[in-house]
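W.,

You were right to be curious about this one. When I first looked at the sequence I had no strong expectations either way, so I just let the prediction run and decided to look at it fresh. Below is the sequence, 165 residues in total, followed by the output.
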Amino acid sequence: MLNLGLRETFRRRRGPLAFLAVVGPGLIAGVAGNDAGGITTYATLGSQTGLRFLWILPLTALLLALVQESVARLGVVTGQGLSDLIRERFGVRWALFAMIVLLLANLANTVANVAGAASALAIFNVPILLTAPLSALAVWVLVVYGSYRSVERIFLSLTAVFLAY
């Protein structure tokens, strides 16, 4: 069913816009690792080790793409989410455990991103105690009130910024 939608998109539209319509969500997911925590980690590791571990980058990018592709196919084929699949195969306790771990990881990532946004604005002498809650509020408003299409367009625009640096 998903393949038919992709084919229809290419039949109706040609060129870069059709390509972005199909590749956009995957591109956004791939660039998602370039958040504040990731950039800090890359910069710190690079400053401490130089180019010695640069060979790991293509390997991890390949593994990330393979995992995302596998998970996307699993979701499309089964029509179920991760917690449903874990519950069916391993039981409710493992599904609950996985969801708690996922919640904690996402919470830590969100805190790192809010801290990163606040720190970035601190370069311009904007107080962190003001920018941290404001950036958290901006993300909350975007997620709660924004449509999928508007959020996708914003993130696709930010992807261009990430690719530029």
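Here's what jumped out at me. The radius of gyration is 19 Å. And, maybe more interesting for your project: Helices lie at 2-12, 16-31, 36-49, 56-78, 82-90, 92-122, 128-145, 148-164.

Coffee later to discuss?

I.
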